[in-house]
Every structure is written in C-alpha cells, then in structure tokens.
C-alpha cells in the first residue's frame, strides 16, 4: 500500500522545469518532461548528498539537465541517468507518481 502525498502545483509546472518538494524528512525533485510529471529522490548517487540544498535552480544553466550542486554531475531529467560527473552511468532513484482527479501525487511505500 502506498501513502499519497500531493505534489503542489504539479499541473502548473512548465515543461522542462523542475521543483523541489519536501515530504516529511525526504526531499524530491519533480520535473515535467514531454508532458509527463517525473519524480526522483533529491540524492546524488555519488555521495548520497542532496543535488540541491537551497532555492538554487535544480536544472543547469541551459535547463536541459538536473544538476548536482556539490560536484557538478548532470542527470537526464527523462530517466535520471548521470551523463557526466563523478557518478557517470549511475541513476537517480525514481519515485512513483500517480494521478487522481487531476492532481499529481508521490506514491511512497
């Protein structure tokens, strides 16, 4: 059974943008790619540190990749694969996103 946690303003998230969401003691990165809401744990696989730790932009300057602000690793927002940096080839941990009555939810076990 999953616990549902509303993703605030997910339906208003612009295409190719990302936001940080905190649920209890956990942080998540939410992005919209090709109309789909995708969620990852906000942890870099390199040292299990948050990719972002403040209100800094989650995406790199061009807006094409999720960026770890500790070591500069870049991740594909579509599948969480690290394409460059100290954890190249590793993946961000994807989180299940559900839809109900027009709202997006993180579905956590």
From TrEMBL:
Keywords: 2Fe-2S, Iron, Iron-sulfur, Metal-binding
Pfam families (alphabetical): Rieske (PF00355)
Any coiled-coil regions, as ranges: none
Record has Iron as a keyword: yes
Gene3D superfamilies xref list: Rieske [2Fe-2S] iron-sulphur domain
PROSITE patterns, sorted: RIESKE (PS51296)
InterPro entries tied to this protein: Rieske_2Fe-2S, Rieske_2Fe-2S_sf
GO MF annotation: an example: metal ion binding
Domain (Rieske) ranges: 5-106
The protein's name: Rieske (2Fe-2S) protein
Provenance organism: Marinomonas profundi
């Amino acid at each position: 059974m999953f616990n549902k946690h509303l993703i605030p303003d997910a339906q208003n998230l612009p295409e190719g943008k990302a936001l940080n969401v905190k649920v209890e003691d956990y942080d998540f990165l939410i992005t919209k790619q090709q109309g789909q809401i995708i969620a990852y744990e906000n942890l870099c696989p390199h040292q299990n540190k948050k990719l972002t730790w403040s209100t800094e932009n989650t995406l790199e300057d061009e807006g094409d990749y999720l960026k770890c602000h500790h070591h500069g690793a870049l991740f594909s927002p579509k599948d969480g694969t690290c394409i460059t940096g100290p954890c190249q080839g590793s993946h961000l941990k994807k989180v299940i996103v559900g839809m109900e009555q027009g709202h997006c939810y993180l579905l956590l076990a």
